[in-house]
Design goal:
3 helices, alpha+beta, globular
């Protein structure tokens, strides 16, 4: 599944294949959940941890989000 390019942030000081969302709003659009739902799941330990990029910015690794989506889909098929 191809994701819109604006949702991706490439780390300049890390490997070229490491991609991150830039903010919680982008994470919500990527996984198809609302921001309050993501926040609740984070508090419950059921969602990937946010990575602080700067003082006022945090995002998620896209690879971790993809893995979370696959795990959630597999759990629903059981």
């Amino acid at each position: 599944m191809t994701r819109p390019a604006y949702l991706m942030f490439r780390q300049e000081d890390g490997p070229a294949d490491v991609r991150m969302t830039r903010c919680l709003k982008e994470t919500a659009a990527y996984v198809g959940l609302s921001i309050p739902t993501i926040t609740r799941l984070e508090r419950q330990g059921m969602f990937p941890e946010r990575i602080r990029r700067s003082r006022h910015s945090a995002g998620h690794f896209v690879e971790e989000l993809d893995q979370w989506i696959r795990e959630r889909a597999a759990a629903q098929r059981r």
